[in-house]
Amino acid sequence: MAAAPPPPAAGGFVLFLHGSGGSGEEIGAEVAPYFAAPELASSVRLSFPTAPTAPIACYGCNLLCCFALWMLCKSCAAVITAWFGIAEVPITAKTVRDEKEVLKAVEYVHGLIDKEIASGTSPSDIFVCGLSQGGALAIASVLLYPKTLGGCVVFSGSVPLRKSFADKVSPEARKTPVLWFHGMADGLVLFEAGHAGCAFLEELGMTCEFKAYPTLGHSIIEEELQYFQQWILNRLGISGITETARPSSSSQHKDLQ
After folding, report:
1. Which phi and psi angles does 51 have, rounded to 5°?
2. What is the value of pTM for the model shown?
3. Which one from 20, 182, 186, 251 is the annotated catalytic residue?
4. Where are the alpha helices (DSSP H) in 86-221?
């Protein structure tokens, strides 16, 4: 006899991917408090994996140096956490990544999703989210996953795949809703990259809610996280949650995508 399927896991599952140079622990400290209310303990499970380390040339000099200086410093590679290589700074709407590296990272994320589904979680209750490079990986993973998920949330990210990948996006994946945050003053992942990414998703027939912040740079702020929390809870059908403890200040991320 075939083994009985696992019982459905309670509530939703949020997979959140940090930006390059960061860690799961660091981004978890920012995000987890928004789901810390006692009534959410059994309703929303969170996961904050940490990327492997790799020598990235961009980090051999000051992260916020000008582009010309970065070009001179490419030989000064530093070992940092990164989901895939960083081709250039700043990230623009035309930046091209190493597709093999991106797809390898996507495969890793798909493994985490598959494991969660095997444990009994419905795909419709799974959310793949990320900041900066983590946001780029999140949207790439959702586009190439063969099932409709609960949603994808991108903070200050971009689409790291060429438009030629559109043919590989299944009809099921196109049904996954996307929430996209981006600061118009972002100097590392330019606003044009985020806006173009959301436009590409809409060309695929996907729903992409885009929230722009005129004075926001490359960082994540409380206003975004509050909206993110409510967006997740609404899709899980959870309401009436009381106010939870939140970080006293917003995070200033310096990753390069």
Report:
1. -70, 155
2. 0.87
3. 186
4. 99-118, 133-143, 191-203
Report in angstroms the alpha-carbon separations of 177 from 72, 173, 197, 240: 41, 9, 14, 23
Catalytic status, residue 186: yes
The pLDDT tens digits of the residues spanning 112-153 come to 999 999 999 999 999 999 999 999 999 999 999 999 999 999
Q: For 73-188, where are the E strands, in sequence order?
A: 78-81, 126-131, 151-155, 178-183
Return d(Cα 115, Cα 136) in angstroms, integer: 21
Residue burial 86-104, b: 16+ Cβ < 10 Å; e: rest: bbbbbbebebebebebbbe
Catalytic residue among 182, 218, 253, 255: 218
| E strands present in the chain | 12-17, 44-47, 53-56, 78-81, 126-131, 151-155, 178-183, 208-213
Cis peptide before 160 (omega within 30 of 0): no
Task: Please give the Cα distance from 136 to 105 (Å, whole number).
Answer: 11
Report in angstroms the alpha-carbon separations of 58 from 26, 74, 248.
21, 6, 31
User: Is 119 a residue of the active site?
Assistant: no
> Is 182 among the residues known to form the active site?
no
pLDDT digit string (tens) for 41-63? 789 999 999 999 988 765 444 34
Q: Give the 3-state secondary structure of residue 14.
A: strand
The answer to which of 68-82, 168-182, 228-242 has the lowest mean pLDDT is: 68-82
| Contact status, residue 183 vs residue 156, Cβ threshold 8 Å | yes
Question: Per the residue annotation, which of 20, 125, 132, 251 is the catalytic one?
Answer: 132
